[in-house]
Design a protein that fits this description.
2 copies of one chain form a homodimer. Chain A has 143 residues and is mainly α. Chain A is built from 7 helices and 3 strands, in the order H-H-E-H-H-E-E-H-H-H. Chains A, B: Its main location: cytoplasm.
Chain lengths: 143, 143
DNA sequence: AACAATTAGGTTGCACACAACTAATTTGCA
DNA sequence: TGCAAATTAGTTGTGTGCAACCTAATTGTT
C-alpha cells in the first residue's frame, strides 16, 4: 500500500516548512532593523539599484505582483525608507528610490548573510550545490 | 567587492521563491477539490489519522500554531470536510475528525502526487536526494 | 487623428502566518 | 486540599500573497 499522500514524502511540504523556518530565523535579526522578511528582500534589490527601479521591475526580481507590492512599498515609504515618484517620460511608471535612511540601513544589514549562513550548519560547498539544485528546480517548474 | 547582500546569492530567497512557485502549481489542481494549499496539507494529515487528531498534534505535524489553525479549521468545518469535538477526558483538547465527505475527497486527490512529481522534471533519485538534503537543513536549523 | 489594445500601478476581498493576548481546564506541588 | 503554573484553544491585529477588478497612460493600427 504505497500511500503517496503522505506529508513526509512531499517535496512541497519541505519547501513550505523550510520557508517558514527561515522567516522565523530572520525575524529577530530583522527586528533590529525594523524590517519584515519581504521588506528585507525589497531592500536587497534597492541596495543594488540605488539610482531607482520601477515597481514593475522590482516585481519581476521578486516575483511579486502589484497587489502585494503596492501596499508593502507604501508601508516602507511611511517608514521613510524609500520614495515613490512617477516617471516623467511615462506617467504610468512609478520609480522607487531609497532615501538616505534607506541607504544607510545597508551598513546595519551587512552582517546578516554571514550570520544566517552559520545558522544553516552547511559547508560553503554544500550551500553552493544546494543553491544550484534549487535553481535547476526553479527553472524546471517555471514555464 | 564581495557584496553578500545580493538576492541571487541567498538560499532563503530560493526557498521563498520555490514555495510560492509550488503554491501556484498546486492552486489549479487543488481548485478542483475546492482546497487551498494549507488546507490540502491539513487534509493529508487527516487522511492518515482517520480516527481523529487533536489540534495541538495537528499543529506539531504542520508546524502551525492555533492562531493559524483555529480559523483555518473553522473554514474547513464550514465546508463540511471535518468536525471538531471537545475531548471528554480533557475538555481543553479539541479533536478534529474527517466527515464522510472529507474521507471521500481522498479518492479525488490520489492522482496529485504523481502529477506534481512530473511537473518538477526531476528523476526519482534526484527527488529523493533533494528531500534528504532539505531534511538535513531542517534538522540543522531546528533548535 | 481616432480608437482599440496594451501596460503600469492601485484597490478590494480572502486566506494564511504569527505575535501577543485571553479564557477555560488540568496538573503539580506546597 | 488549595492554588499557582502549565496546557490547550481561541481572539485580535498586522503583514503578506494573490485573484479579480479598476483607472490612467501609452502604443499600435487604420
Amino acid at each position: 500500500m504505497s500511500d503517496n499522500l503522505q506529508l513526509e514524502k512531499q517535496l512541497c511540504f519541505r519547501l513550505y516548512s523550510l520557508n517558514k523556518l527561515m522567516c522565523r530565523l530572520y525575524a529577530p535579526v530583522l527586528k533590529e532593523l525594523a524590517l519584515t522578511y519581504p521588506q528585507y528582500l525589497v531592500m536587497m534589490v534597492l541596495w543594488q539599484y540605488k539610482t531607482g527601479i520601477s515597481i514593475k521591475d522590482l516585481g519581476i526580481k521578486l516575483d511579486l505582483d502589484s497587489g502585494t507590492l503596492s501596499p508593502l512599498l507604501k508601508r516602507m515609504e511611511k517608514q521613510a525608507l524609500l520614495k515613490r515618484n512617477r516617471q516623467k517620460k511615462d506617467e504610468r511608471v512609478v520609480v522607487i528610490k531609497l532615501t538616505q535612511k534607506g541607504i544607510e540601513l545597508q551598513k546595519n544589514a551587512e552582517h546578516i548573510p554571514a550570520k544566517m549562513f552559520a545558522v544553516t550548519g552547511l559547508t560553503f560547498e554544500k550551500l553552493q550545490s544546494l543553491n544550484q539544485e534549487l535553481d535547476q528546480l526553479i527553472e524546471n517548474i517555471t514555464d
